[in-house]
Design brief:
This protein is α/β, with parallel strands linked by helices. The protein is built from 19 helices and eight strands. It binds iron/sulfur cluster. Belongs to the FldB/FldC dehydratase alpha/beta subunit family.
Amino acid sequence: MRRWSWRPQARPIPPQPPSPVPLTREWGSKGKEPPSPWCSFPYFFKEIGPRPGGLRSRPFQRRRGRTPQRPPAPHPRTPQKEDFMDLIETFGAKIGALSEEKPQRARQLLTAGFRANGVKNKLASKRSSKSDRMLFQLVNRAMVTCLAKPQSNVMVSLFTPCEMLHLQGLHPYSCEGFSSYLSGAMAEQPFLHQAEDTGIPNSLCSYHKVFIGAAQMGLMPKPRFILSTSLACDANTLTFRHLAQFYDVPHFNVDIPFESSPQAVDYVAGQLRQMGEFLTQQTGLPLDDGQLARTVARSQRTMALYHRGLRLRAGRQVLSDLTSELLRTAAFHFLLGTPETEAYARQLLREITTAPPAQGKQLLWIHTTPYWVAPLRHLFAQSTRVQVAACDMSYEGIVEADPTKPYEAMARRLVYSPFNGPAQRRIDRALEMAKTVGADGAVWFCHWGCKHTLGGARLGKKALEEAGLPTLLLDGDSCDRGFGGEGQAATRMEAFLEVLEGMA
Ligand code: SF4
């Protein structure tokens, strides 16, 4: 027996009374038999009448004399945002199609696309703040370099300290950052399918799947070597070993112990020293400890500037968007230690210091932002109603350390990261940061495939709500459009905002 359901299409249709309109009245045939569209066609047109002056009215209302004039052509439409999205979609499809047969050509096209995006951002993003524009240029340049100058490329996992690489003039690029960029170009789907078709499980984080697929299809150039850490997920250990075998390049992995202690810092610092020797072996360039100390000092200064900004952030309105949150993650990881990143942090601090009082709601965001979800992106874009005050992907690197001992300082950043160890450490840090930035609520983004973020979600919600911070668990995927649920994510966020606004 069929069960009753709210869905109208699943409910049994009750018996209907006979229609009071006889069949012959259909199609405008005015009761004339038969009700065929061909026979009733002229009657139908006579009934509603031709469009006055329209060209198609001529067979019915022939006019003598002047041929009716065509209405003047409308003004050319100003390009809309949707047109631009269509353009990106076509671009993404082209990259995917070309990668199948001509990966070199796809790479050139992608490089040109990223360059064009940089120019567009310079010329057209007047609504964004100066710091957001600086940030975009910084990360975009890194992505272009990774494709255009493969001879100096070093593939890294997001949390790998890259100060030694910057010092040697090498270009680190993170696998996760590159996947995000491919997703931004709407080109991630063929690479995801490629990875899954070769046996990579569907449940692996999509950042890793996209990158593996791009490597297998030849879109990614071969790196000189690969550096990775076991922070922050077990996916790293497998992906980078797999890629090193695939490209047949040397690989150095830094193991981060679960416990945070001075012994763990010494253990990791020892591995970082070995990483320095590995680099010297690969490049033939010696590493100067004094220069390294200065570069690490710059990293520490950058994170200290950002921390000062966060402390001043409470009660201030700093407009931004979800994309910038993700770009900041890139800048504060594989671009940390460069003068450009320090200049960006200084500019951001300047803007926070002079920002007006906040009007909208301030959120604490846990994990990555799904910036490809258009309704969600629009909700946050330069919005006075809601802003992300802090995101744990960006502030996780704020760890005090002595830069005169550069290896120990880098090791402390890894060992004492809230992403290392039990979920409770990440939660405690979130509670502390929520107080610092004066957050009104928190969003815990459950990125599909990120097992430790998913695992800590309910614990996090409980702890944050017990501390008086309403928390939304938002499911989705930051990189894979195929995951869907865009409308649902935006509706849930809207409802959450209404709850927060109702509490004011
Ligand atoms: S999202 Fe999670 S699983 Fe994916 S790379 Fe980041 S930490 Fe690892």
